[in-house]
Amino acid sequence: MPGHAGDVLNDAFETLNVLNASFRTSPQPDTFALPLDRLRMGTMVTGVHYRHPAVLANMAATVDIISGGRLDLGIGAGCNEQESGAYGIELGTLRERFDRFDEACEVLVSLLSNDITDFDGEYYQLTDAHNEPKGPQRPHPPILIGGVGEKRTLRAVARHAQIWDCSLAKTDELPHKREVLRAHCKNAGRDPEEILLSSTSAWSPAGRKTCRARSTRSSSRGSGWRSCTSRRKSALRYSPRSPKSSRRYAESQQRIRRSQVGKGRLGCIIVAVVGVVIAGSALWVITRGSTPTPGCTVSAGTDQYTLSPEQMGNAATIVGVGTKQGLPAHAATIAIATALQESKLRNLPGGDRDSVGLFQQRPSQGWGTVEQISNPVYSATAFYQKLASQPDWTELSVTVAAQRVQRSGAPDAYAQWESEARAIAMALTGQQAAALTCHDITVGAPVTDLVALANAELGTAQLSGRHPAAQGWSISSWLVAHAISVGVDTVTYDGRTWTAASGSWTAPGASDGMLSLHLVPANPAS
What CATH number does the domain located at 5-22+38-287 have? Predict the structure, then answer.
């Protein structure tokens, strides 16, 4: 279908089939001078009224599998009145489009993430809906939403998107639009740093050399925008403004990375984003910059699960509190699965009704005050106390045990997180050696007192010294997960060393059971 309202009379291929073929065909040498392992593609964008979201979810999962986890799914509410009318497809009023779009986003995300989807909306109804097999990207391929409308578009970005394409924003409007997006993220209980910021441009092979020759990097104080004009097309590019600003998405099986939209200045930017018009169909090809994005990865056999440092720090707190109470790893698995389902391991300031925090506990249900529940140590302690009061909880499955504590309206939802939760729990309880690493992080002066945090979460500040294997790896993983906040840039245990600079553990050395760490000085200049 045409990519723009003005393309109705031009020839056009169906976009997702173009993507399918593109991922399976090597580009011609003169077409893309890009390393293939860094090339991603996606729709830019497909109106949700063209396909039922269940059909689109199945198509997206198929393309994600074929591409090896390199799909970015761009979706929109629909705007091409001429084409929709010609095809007899109801577009609706602007309000109806966005109401339908919000529902479609929920359905898409659920089908691409969950085993079973039930949905009862005004536009879509699903019962016991499956979408298998799913693609390699977890929890789902990144959702891209473009546009600058402050009431509905940016609200949809805050609720559903991992990428916001801001190409329609004028240079002087962008700071204000970012502030509006931050406000919507706050209302949605979402961290704005989750959202990658992108800009697109038109491109043609004939104009590539001219455009490349004239493009320049913006200064850190400039607007960042550079206009690059060729005979065939004009291209608007954005250059990175920070060495921490962007990277390609991680390999498949890793979680969607974090970005810096929420920072005081424009943060995580895709270095080169090129909108390619192929016979009228809207398509985008993305190369990520080489600057890495911080993340923490847990390995369990051949599986890997990657979270942001903030999420992994919260996971370390939850597991640490359970360890302090002398609870087995099964309790930590239940708690982590619950927090993944309820908050994605983020300490949310709000949620449904009066829900708060990592477990979305409610003051009205006796969990404590908002201030208390907002404290991760308190909320984890309260969760474990409620769990331990359940008869035979150690014999219960993760989802049954979690449901007995939470009394959720979706009692089976916790099961989908069991594998990931178990891997995290095994690493943080020390059952797996060197299974947790944080990479591409910058460790500066501590913002949290290590002794105070260790006492609160682990019940001890005796971190260095000789430890049994499980305890030693538990403390080591806890330190790595909290490295940014406590200012730890090196951890050594039992002959293996992790450093913030390398982002990985060294190969096993001489086993001695000794643990040591290095703290970044509070005032390096002194």
Answer: 3.20.20.30
